[in-house]
Every structure is written in structure tokens, then in C-alpha cells.
What we know:
Layout lengths: L11 E10 L9 E5 L2 E3 L3 E10 L3 E8 L6 H16 L15 H15 L9 E10 L2 E7 L4 E5 L2 E4 L10 H7 L15 E2 L10 E6 L5 E5 L1 H14 L7 H13 L7 E10 L1
Antiparallel strand pairs: 1-4, 1-13, 2-3, 2-5, 5-6, 6-7, 6-10, 7-11, 8-9, 8-12, 12-13
Helix pairs in contact: 1-2, 4-5
Amino acid sequence: MNDTMPENLAPPVLNVAYASDRGPSGKRQEDALMVDRSVLQADLLPPTARRFEAGNLLLAIADGIGGSPSGDVASKALLMALDSLYFSEDSSELLEGGWITPSFLTSVHARFVNVLENDKHTFGSGSTLVVAQIRDNRLCILNVGDSPAYLFHEGGIRLISHPHSGPPGLLARYVDAEEEGVYLSRPLTSAFIADRQSKSIQIATVEMEFPHDAGLLLCSDGLSDLLHESGLLRNLDWSISPRQQVEAWLAAAKGAGPQDNISLVWVRQGRH
Length: 272
């Protein structure tokens, strides 16, 4: 008797691969990744593959704001706040039908501020965020700032996150505080800021089907700024494993020009 379930009836799984590279010597790693319950930040995180049941999975990339006091601390602290709230016993009160929402991210922001704003070394630190929740062939993307999410399907690529700019006057606020060692050296996109006075964060939300033959890419702008959509699509190969695909995008980015921090998470559906 053959107890093996036919492949087309086997329960779906999510095949996930991820990596992070600080870039040239002397740069600080200001990206952080979240894959399920793992919050990861390292100068070099080699391409790694994991497999998850397709019932419910949370993935995220946080990109610390370069020029803010402690972008590396901010990105990791933000994902730790996300993890602690999402997996807490009280998370059902913050979610809607089990799904993440803008109000949930507002609570994450409050916890992030509480952790960092009272330390002069981390006050004013900032980070962008793109987070994906995958449940039963559905996908919810929330993003704050310019870290993108792309859907690859039917031979094309689609930007499904919504980069946006921060509220007017936010940059001036931190420039004025320069004598206290708190400043931003470039125009600020919408971001989580470790300052209770920064009350407004712009949160973009997308809910959609995640087709069984599609792929999802979350990345920091260190990858997207070098390869753009055309380069990401040109270096996509559906015949290779998710881990090999992450390796291919990293290699293409390193050959494309001066390198910033690069982090990416690639997801494809499959069967056991």
C-alpha cells in the first residue's frame, strides 16, 4: 500500500530563502530581517533556505536610516517589537481576523519608541519597514518608507508596496537638534522614529491573492536601487532553488556598482 499523498494533493508549503550582506569594509550593517520567529542581523548572512507550512507566516525587512544616530540598533529593535507583539498572548486584540493592520503597526511603533527614545545614543534613530503576512494563499503587505515588496507572476514583476515620503518638517526637526548629536544627513522617507514627538507614520497596505505559481521578494533598497525591476526580472530563474535565486540576485547586485547594505527574502509556494 502506498501512503504517499499525490503531489497535487499534498499540503502547500512556503519555500523561503534569505540573505544579508553589509557591503564594503567600513560600512555598518543597518538592515535586519525577520523570518517567522527569527530576528537576524549580521555583517554577512549567507543565503539560507527554510520551509514552512503555508498556514501563516510573517516576514519582514527593516532598513535603518543612514545618518540617524543608531540605524543598526533601530532596525533590529523595530523587528524585536514586531515579533514580541505579533507572537504575544494579547496579539488577537491587535489583529483583525488574525491579520496585521496599520493599527497593529502603530502599536509596534509605540513599543519601538519606548525602547529607544530615553537613551541619548538611540533617540531619533529611524528605520523603514516592509512586512508580509502569508495565510492560506492570501498576502498582506504593510510598509513604512521605501523598502520594497515585489510580486513575480506570469513572466512579469509588480511593485506591490507603496514607497512614500515623510511628513513635512520632520527633517528640520532633527537638523535643529544637531547640537545634541541627533541629526539626519539626507531627506527622510516615512519611517519609524525613536521620538515620542514623531506621532505620525504613513502606513501603506495591500491585500491580495498569492498565486501558487508566483514569487514574493522583500528587500532593502540596497538591492532595488542597484538592479531596479528590469535587473531583478532579468536575473530571475524559476528553474533554480530559492536559495540559488537569492545567490543570483546578490551576485548581480555586487556586479552592478557601489554597494550599500543588501538584504532580501524570497518566497515561493510548493508542495511537500
